[in-house]
Amino acid sequence: MINSVRNTVLFLLNKDNRGFITPSEFDYFAKQAQLEIFEELFDDYNRAVSAQNRRKKSLGYGDSVSHIQNDIDIFSKSGTLSNLTLPVDLYKLINLTYSSRPIQEVPVHKYDMLVNSNYTAPTVTHPIYIRRGSAVIVNPTSITSDITINYIRRPVDPHWGYVTISGDPVYNADSSTDFEVSQAYEPELVIRICKYAGLSIREADVVQATTAIENMEFQKENL
Fold first, then answer.
1. Total domain count for the chain?
2. N or C, which terminus of the chain has less Cβ within 10 Å?
3. Same domain, 83 and 188
4. Single residue among 98, 127, 153 that ends a domain in this structure
């Protein structure tokens, strides 16, 4: 998909001799565009759930909740927590389990109270944890390994790889990293990258056109 997106972006920019973006510029714009779409998936999901609860959304093929959930599930990941340190690609923590038992997250300000209480003190069968920066603190403290983490990871940065032939960059699939968002977001990727490119080359027409298209798409989604 990444080569198709880049070709479309270059076509739109070169259509009226508006300018050209380098492969490195494209990679940067592509990264930002994918991150925007990825982060908006969670807001879109919440809105879709709310609309479905109000019976404003259909089920079956029109079930936007399931469609967005499938798009998010692309980034779901699980593994074993090492030294109680969270993965570097973590975006949203789903849960932690120990010996197939859930470890309950508790608010930091309640942690000491729960640990020191005779009635709510955590046990191996009912452990708790809090987050501290890039790590977690689990109680009972005897639990230090065999902890499974389920989470949503950040998308890998896209990269348009190429080889230089006769002074021009030519697409090389072997050295490229494709977009990870669903193929359905290809038109949106093009729009967002064109907008970034328009800002970069100071082409107001490109920015205005892409902004208008974004607004139209937003209005359609919120009808």
1. 2
2. C
3. no
4. 153
Residues 22 and 49 in one domain: yes
Note whether 67 and 86 are same-domain residues. no
**φ, ψ (nearest 5 deg) of residue 98:** -135, 120
Domain boundary among 100, 121, 153: 153
For 40, 91, 101, 137, 196, the CA distances from 171, given in Å and listed in that order, are: 29, 31, 48, 47, 21
Output the pTM of the full model.
0.78
Assess whether 119 and 212 both reside in one domain.
no
